[in-house]
Amino acid sequence: MMDEQNNIFFDPFAEEGVAEVDSLSSFIKIIECNAINQKFPIEHWSDVLTAENEHILKSNYIYRGQNKDHGKINANAFRKTESILCKPEYNIYPHFMPATNEFYRQVSHRLNEDERKQWVAFSQHHGLKTNLLDVTGSPLVALFFACYEEVKSSTNGREKVAVVYLFDDYIDVTEILNKFSAVTIIELMIRGEKFTINKMFKLLKGYKSNWLYDGYQKYFMNLCMNIEKIAKNSDSYDDTCIKLALKSIHESAKAISELPKNVSIIEKLEKAQKLFEAIQGYPNRTIIEVDEFDFHHADVREKMIYFYLVFLVFYLKHHQFNYEVTNLDFMPLMIFKPNVSFERSRLQNGFFIAQQFKKYAKDDEQQIRLIQEINYTKKIKIKNPDLILTQLNALGINEGAIYGDFDNVAKYIRQSFE
């Protein structure tokens, strides 16, 4: 929305990145203002009806609708249920793969090659718990799900308020996950898989123009703080060489994590160089190889990305099960658009955020203790979901159109005639 007289763009989101709407038209205005503020104006409100519209794609946002705001956003494998909460260490999640493996055992003979290769996505589609979080490129599809699930749920007298989350802090790792059968990028990076390392370097180079500044502050500094935590355990090792190396890593990481935000990039780069050299001296060190990367001729941005990947792999390899529960808050979100084509996903312009995690073998059981945080960029609170569902239906966005299968089309028609 723009004040034409003063040529000023208004941001409908409050300082916390939260807006509130109570009708379809107000939601569309929010989406329009968001696109305008990113310098990609929507010429007509109907442009938001399809994610194929160039203006929506250029805004870079992806969306998720929920019937209420749970505070934390997690894939269903990492949502705390009663069975998890009753455990003494409720932050240790059982690995979800045994269930999906059993599902595969029983139905694999009926699957095509793509469905076998993208088994986790197939399992998610059929309702099993996985590390994949459903998102969409269409704001109105997200709005439908937020309102539809809220209207279906029992409110127990509370005011009905749904929510649509907006994300723009992500990289697309589809090419990597389509190439390998691995569940996570973390698993491939720990292995030192060369294609993955090279692709991640390229993705981060093209990630955001402000990555070196905002992204560096957000991810690189947090990563160094976590390296400091694991490196300070040097006294627990008997090997003197390891003790000295870890001590040096701890001191270098601590120096970086304590730098104020206004310190120049060059000074931060010098500190990072010291941490890099300390890690090089660590026994069984982890040094990644990136094709066409010459450290001595690389620019500041490329060096920082290289350091970030080296330190990330080091941290992931050396984070142990007995360390404190850690949320991964130093990686961008990773979106995944599998080759498997589901009609429902096509209708919803749906794909996934692949929530990253590290698995551990403990007492003959696979458990998860290191999980990536999923943080939204902006949030729209939705009031009057019943009214908005009626307005969406007038535009042809309803249960039959969104799901597309015979049962839901028949259900929608039956309700329309009742």
Set down the secondary structure blueprint.
Elements (H helix, E strand, L loop, with lengths): L1 E2 L4 E2 L8 E4 L2 H14 L16 H6 L2 E5 L15 H4 L7 E2 L2 H11 L5 H5 L1 H7 L6 E5 L2 H14 L8 E7 L2 E3 L1 H6 L5 H7 L2 H12 L5 H21 L8 H18 L7 H16 L19 H19 L7 E3 L4 E4 L6 H6 L1 E5 L2 E6 L2 E8 L5 E6 L1 H10 L4 H5 L2 H12 L1
Parallel strand pairs: 3-14, 8-10, 9-13
Antiparallel strand pairs: 1-2, 4-7, 5-13, 6-11, 7-14, 10-11, 12-13
Helix pairs in contact: 7-16, 10-14, 11-12, 11-14, 12-13, 13-14
Low-confidence stretches: 1-9, 39-46, 51-58, 82-90
Q: Tell me, briefly, the overall form.
A: globular
Please indicate the percent range of residues in DSSP E strands (runs of 2 or more): 5-15%
Q: What is the average of the pLDDT values?
A: 81
Biggest sheet record: 4 strands, mixed
Overall helicity: 40-55%
Give the total of domains: 2
Discrete helix count: 18
Instruction: State the distance separating the first and last CA atoms.
Output: 41 Å
The computed structural class is alpha+beta
What's the number of extended β-strand segments?
Answer: 14
Spatial extent as radius of gyration:
23 Å
Short structural summary:
The chain has helices spanning 24-37, 54-59, 82-85, 97-107, 113-117, 119-125, 139-152, 174-179, 185-191, 194-205, 211-231, 240-257, 265-280, 300-318, 343-348, 385-394, 399-403, 406-417, and strands at 2-3, 8-9, 18-21, 62-66, 93-94, 132-136, 161-167, 170-172, 326-328, 333-336, 350-354, 357-362, 365-372, 378-383.
